[in-house]
Amino acid sequence: ADAPHPGDDPAAPAVEDVRARLEAWLGDTVLTPEADLSAPLLDLGVDSLDLIRTARRVEAAFGVRVQLRELAVPAMTTARLAELVAERAARRRTADTAPPGAGHGPVALTPPQEQAWEEQSGDRGHWNQALLFTTRSGLDGELFAEAVRRLVAGHASLRLTVVAPPARRPRQQVAAVALDGPPGAALGPVLDTVDISELADADLPAAITLRCAVEQRALDPGAGPVVRFVRFDAGPTRPGRLLIVVHQLAFDMVSWSVLLEDLEELYTALEAGRTDARCAEGTPYPEWARALTEHARTPEAEAEAEWWTDVVRTPATVPLDHTADDPRAVNTARTAATHREEFPPELTARLDAAARAHRAHPGDLVLHALGEALAGWLDEPAVRVDVLRHGREEAVGDSHLARTTGWFTTTVPVRLDLAPGTAAERLARTVGHLAALPGGGVGFGALSRHGRPRISAALRAAPPSDVSFDFEGDDADALPLRTVLPDVAPEPIGDITAPHWTRPHLIEVIATTDDDVLRAEWWYSTALHDGATVRHLAARHRAALTALLDAVGHGTAAPGAAGAADS
């Protein structure tokens, strides 16, 4: 055996122990009972969100980092991953990183941040993500404040502000936070406590609901804060509430799991007397923004330009029922409406089976059916749809993003080729296109926002698609609720967007498979489309997906249908 290396950890876990943990995690979330656990991860129905969760659990349990691109190689199995984790755990060293709470100088906005900043007009403060949780009774207010301070210190995106001088591109910077002294003084407006201990049980919901609605307008991306923690103290014997509101520029849906896991671990560690507790953040968000900006002018990124230029030439405009001088100006939260479709429960099982047969993600098939519906409506052989992806591809630099909070969600233009062919052949073209997306799609935003002027201008000359698609699956990143925050609270949290907020697409399709039932939400603007038009389009999509599963659900995958892309 090799001699020990300096810094080797004699208490590192055995490969067998690591493998058992990995198989237990995967078995809890994605694997079918008959799955062959020795098969490559990508053959087990694991998508990249599952891999992100696995990377996060590996770092939390074993103190080592594994990149998403390492997990996504075709030959990666649980056995090989266990060997990799055990090897790194044995040679674990303390990384040279910036201290918690450190500030970061101004850097460019990431592509989704900059696009959103340009799209919104007027007050940009009221555009949030927000959740309200129950808290366990008897929560210690001082310990909780200290846990929040360490949480905010450990995640740079929770401290960002946007600097936007006239006639210059906006930039983001991160304020420092003090790690000594009273936590309330260090946090300032980030943390507030509302005493509701004197209220009767029957009066609690109204008081909480009113305060939540007010808090939706309390954020300011220009001056700060971009996050608010509001703890409702109901006394020592009753569960309280915790409202967390984060500005969209600083957060995405995957970030919730990171935030909640860290808050739980920090509070329970402090409660147990562990004064050294801190967050184990990955690559801080401003460092990712800087890396993405630099990546845009590398030969590797510029080699993608031809691909994206070809994609954005694809038709992407839908007809309107109501004319408007500027459709996007009237496409606001005030005019938004929703049509919901629910599919039969047995369809989800058929969808999963067909996806496995064609080495695809279930969302790929739902997206393909959307393309079929749009192509028929527009009478086009190919259509372009903006697809939302989680954006944590780790394809840029030496990035580790599984435990980083921030807005990584990226919108990627996708060409759906519906030229004549069998159902399997048309599906294979879609699956192949998604699998071939360069770098998982993050390069498109980087090139269009930070690329050389010739490339950037070519990509931004084409208007965005009028239609977007987001497959969120079965609650794509389930909230890790444990003892400190045991559940989501029942009270309403108010409107997370202002009425004047500009919607980025005219029609947004959001698909979920909660409770193993496929549902599709169709968001549209009543100023531009009638409900009957959207219902008709949704019916086309329903028929297209059903016909697709009838045609390919039990067949053999067509040539070229390899690899899977997630939403």
Automatic annotation (TrEMBL):
Residues 91-122 are annotated as: Disordered. Keywords: Phosphopantetheine, Phosphoprotein. Residues 12-89 form the Carrier domain. This is Condensation domain-containing protein. It comes from the Bacteria. Transmembrane segments: none annotated. The lineage of its organism: Bacteria, Bacillati, Actinomycetota, Actinomycetes, Kitasatosporales. The keyword Cytoplasm does not apply. SUPFAM superfamilies: ACP-like, CoA-dependent acyltransferases. It comes from Streptomyces vinaceusdrappus. Pfam families: Condensation (PF00668), PP-binding (PF00550). PROSITE patterns: CARRIER (PS50075), PHOSPHOPANTETHEINE (PS00012). Its cofactor is pantetheine 4'-phosphate. Coiled coil: none annotated.
